[in-house]
Amino acid sequence: MIRLISFDVWNTLLDINVMVENLVKALSELLGVPENDLMQKILETREEIKKIRKSQSGSPEKALEESQELLARALEVDVEIVKRAVAKATLTVDESILLPGVKETLKELHGKYIITTTGNVMFWPSAYTRLILEKFGLADYITKQFYSDEIKAYKPMREAFLAPLKYFNVSPEEALHIGDTKAEDFEGALKVGMYACWINPEAERVERIHERGFVVKSVKDLLEVLPQI
Amino acid sequence: MIRLISFDVWNTLLDINVMVENLVKALSELLGVPENDLMQKILETREEIKKIRKSQSGSPEKALEESQELLARALEVDVEIVKRAVAKATLTVDESILLPGVKETLKELHGKYIITTTGNVMFWPSAYTRLILEKFGLADYITKQFYSDEIKAYKPMREAFLAPLKYFNVSPEEALHIGDTKAEDFEGALKVGMYACWINPEAERVERIHERGFVVKSVKDLLEVLPQI
């Protein structure tokens, strides 16, 4: 029986494209540089970091610092510009950052399950992700939030998934993690014995692809998956 | 000749009472508890932490985490409530958080000096302080911001004052630090060989009280002090 549902944040609850667009706008204002040039560098740096994480070769304690430095170097600016830009972006994002159906789904699950976020941190600190979840009303439906810069472990590291389970004294088979990155979210959760949902927007329908794993189109499909467990 | 001016943030640039009032309001909403009860506990916990810092006996790496845990314990709540409340407070503070004359003074000094912040972090991460400085237009006049949760050293530790000096290759006697806490700001800066201004709102006038130290009423008095160095 599932007692805890863990949500990845970016591209699961919140639209990372909205955040990155606002980040690009902020950098463009600060640097007086056209937005096109900047978007490319951000996406490239992001891919670079995702590779490092997949192989778990990045330092968990310094992950945020190193990601910001990598981006600063790619943009050829002082890291202070990156810090200012992520603050500006956090100030300017609007409600379009909420992915469709997310609030309604969390409302539905709230009170019936322990609801957590298990999030990796890249160019901005978890404090800004917390602030956005607070600003647009999602934090009300989350029991406790866990982030890599606070717990010093990032998905797919085991500790990232186990920290919430230990906190709430829940065993892996009583927990489900849902997220959009196959290696970080889906495989990482399965490896520690949890149930897992992989969000693939191109999937045609909800499908069981592992003893404990499902592919879904969005978080809304949780309401279809949970009765099957 | 002064090349770098370092500013404490809370009660030097920004009014901490405005932040704490908004924090109390947020806690009150989250807990359904009257505001009066909460203010007392916040102030007591704050005094406790300031004593720990004065004797430099708190761990620099875990300072934010430990301060939030201390407050959570004093309020008898999960630390998640503290994290949510500081996020809410950051969202609700208005322009009254800017202390009088601060923006005009920074504008005046900008471009003539390297301007830094050297801030200790207590109940909320530096990311929120950065966001507030960005939101109300002060970040435009600051060359680079330094905070204890990022540099892993808090005032009055030497490293907290030396980090900006090392970054900009400025020697202590070419730098001035201004802040409102006598031990953390004034004595800490003097000890590493910098000039120092102590903000005492009850001072009657600007006065030299040390070879390298002045007492002032607010940051505006910097414009009176700097020509004397």
From TrEMBL, chains A, B:
Keywords: Hydrolase. It comes from the Archaea. One of its GO terms (molecular function) is hydrolase activity. The keyword Hydrolase applies. Belongs to the HAD-like hydrolase superfamily. NCBIfam families: HAD-SF-IA-v1 (TIGR01549). This is 2-haloalkanoic acid dehalogenase.
